[in-house]
Design a protein that fits this description.
Blueprint (H helix, E strand, L loop, with lengths): L4 E6 L28 H9 L8 E6 L3 H7 L8 E4 L5 H15 L4 E6 L3 E2 L2 H17 L4 E6 L10 E11 L2 E10 L4 H9 L3 E11 H11 L1 H12 L5 H9 L6 H4 L7 E6 L3 E2 L4 H9 L2
Parallel strand pairs: 1-2, 1-4, 2-3, 6-10
Antiparallel strand pairs: 4-9, 5-11, 6-9, 7-8, 7-9, 8-10
Helix pairs in contact: 3-6, 3-7, 6-7
């Protein structure tokens, strides 16, 4: 495995659509919804089969610091990126990009949700290996993984594939034609009938230096603040918190990803669910 490959498990969400089991004090990534491990423990174990443990980081918010330490005791404290407040994923990605660039100017990063169920682990490993390989070969590109949809679902965003781009680790890689937000049932049904559409699982692969450049281009004000925060010491926590809380709250998808013209997608059949509500949890547990 390439020494410049890193994975960051995103664990700051509150998952309140599964209330009362998942709530702000203990959201779904810290719950044993499927199997004997919590979702974040299962995610960490899965990612560890692709990336060495010393190259895995956790991004979370201050309030979940103790839960992360309790559930992932082998993760060193300097491998936990703590956001002072919830500001969605754009500021979080920026902080990750600047911190990892300081560590390794050639860093290639996979951002992985901590609260998804993946039943096809071998496919996950193969797909992630392919995505890292494609990212390493294509400077200036963002790579994502799309899930082959098995039903029309209005809870997910969709990715429309364009022309085939290449093959990596036995996986076909396509250009991304467009992203579509959560569609109505009529359009979701049409998408599933077409081979061109995939569910957007928000697994992103990127060079840390590219992400920093994209943020500086599309979110210049936030990028300046995040760059300063990444260089500040923990002793300056009050100033860090003030600066971070002043940032705009925006998902990375709309802040950066959907503005890029160099995006590739790898379709995958991961046995995947984001376990976003009680209905999807029921489907997972019943094997639907």
């Amino acid at each position: 495995m390439n020494q410049h490959f890193y994975a960051v498990i995103m664990a700051g969400g509150s998952g309140t659509r599964l209330w009362p089991m998942s709530r702000q004090a203990s959201p779904k990534q810290f719950q044993k919804l499927v199997g004997e491990k919590t979702l974040i423990q299962a995610t960490y174990d899965r990612v560890k089969k692709v990336v060495p443990a010393e190259q895995i980081y956790i991004a979370t918010v201050e309030r979940y610091k103790d839960l992360v330490a309790e559930q992932l005791p082998k993760v060193a404290s300097d491998h936990i990126f703590l956001e002072p407040a919830s500001r969605n994923t754009a500021p979080s990605f920026g902080l990750i990009a600047y911190k990892l660039t300081q560590k390794d100017k050639l860093a290639i990063v996979a951002t992985v949700a901590s609260d998804h169920v993946v039943q096809n682990e071998s496919e996950f490993i193969k797909t992630f290996q392919a995505a890292y390989e494609v990212t390493a070969k294509n400077k200036g590109y963002l790579i994502t993984v799309g899930i082959n949809p098995d039903k029309p679902d209005t809870n997910y965003g969709y990715i429309k594939m364009g022309d085939e781009h290449s093959v990596a680790a036995g996986k076909k890689v396509f250009k991304v034609d467009s992203f579509t937000e959560k569609p109505d049932l009529k359009n979701a049904t049409r998408y599933v009938k077409s081979w061109q559409y995939l569910w957007n699982a928000s697994y992103f692969f990127w060079r840390a230096s590219d992400m920093a450049a994209w943020l500086e281009k599309y979110q210049a004000k936030s990028a300046r603040v995040l760059k300063k925060i990444a260089l500040m010491d923990e002793e300056e926590s009050a100033a860090i918190t003030r600066a971070y809380k002043a940032l705009d709250s925006e998902p990375i998808d709309t802040a950066v990803v959907e503005k890029l013209d160099k995006i590739l997608v790898i379709p995958a059949d991961l046995g995947w669910s984001d376990v976003g509500n009680w209905g999807t949890l029921h489907d997972v547990l019943s094997g639907n």
